[in-house]
Amino acid sequence: MSNLKRIRTEYGITQGQLAVKSHVKLRTIRAYEQGYRDINKASYENLSKLATTLKCSVTELLEE
Questions:
Q1: SS3 call for 46
Q2: Is the pTM of this model over 0.90?
């Protein structure tokens, strides 16, 4: 499970809700969670929006 999915699930919101609140496209969130896109190569803008919405740090979203 990706860090994004784990944190989002712990936060208690759906991918759709995260997309609306963070202003990151739902399609992009799905791609990060499913591993089709590498979240480590995501724009800082998207990472920042997701981290702010999920009340976590950007580094917590990155994969090792």
A1: helix
A2: yes
The alpha-helical segments, DSSP class H, found in 1-64 are: 3-11, 15-22, 26-34, 44-54, 58-61
Nearest to 59 by CA among 46, 43, 40: 40
Q: Report helix, strand or coil for 25.
A: coil
In this predicted model, what pLDDT tens digit does every residue of 6-62 receive, in sequence order? 999 999 999 999 999 999 999 999 999 999 999 999 999 999 999 999 999 999 999
User: Which residue type, as a one-letter code, is found at position 40?
Assistant: N
List Cα–Cα distances, 51 to 2, 18, 57, in angstroms.
14, 10, 6
Over its C-alpha atoms, the chain yields an Rg (Å, rounded) of 10
